[in-house]
Amino acid sequence: MTTAAIALVLLFVLAYALERNHRRQSGPRPPQTGSSDLPDRDTQRVLAELAARRN
Fold first, then answer.
1. 13-40 exposure pattern, b = at least 16 Cβ within 10 A, e = fewer
2. How many CB atoms lie within 10 A of CB 54?
3. CA triple 35-41-43, angle to 5 deg
4. What is the residue-level pLDDT of the chain in tens, covering all 55 positions?
5. Residues in CB range of 53: below 8 A, 6 or more apart
6. How far apart are CA 16 and CA 19, in angstroms?
7. Among positive and negative, which fits the CA dihedral 38, 43, 45, 47?
8. What is the pTM of this model?
9. For every residue of 9-20, which 3-state class applies, written as one string?
10. How far is the C-alpha of 55 from the C-alpha of 44, rounded, in Å?
């Protein structure tokens, strides 16, 4: 009986913690507004690697 009560309490605490964490998540962040004139170095690197493979 004691084991069942402890297991039930642990399940309750786990469910509470998961629900609390879920409520604290604000969801996906909106994209940043505005634009940037900085070049995307990842795109440049990938394109350079693909060009090197073709040669």
1. eeeeeeeeeeeeeeeeeeeeeeeeeeee
2. 5
3. 90
4. 899 999 999 999 999 999 998 777 666 666 666 666 778 889 899 999 999 998 7
5. none
6. 5
7. negative
8. 0.44
9. HHHHHHHHHHHH
10. 17
Domain ranges of the chain: 1-25
What's the rounded Cα separation, in Å, for the pair 50 and 38? 22
Place of tokens 């409520």: 23
Question: What letter represents residue 15's amino acid?
Answer: A
Q: What is the DSSP string of 1-55?
A: -HHHHHHHHHHHHHHHHHHHHHHH---SPPPPSS---S--HHHHHHHHHHHHHH-
Please report, as a single letter, which amino acid is at residue 1.
Answer: M
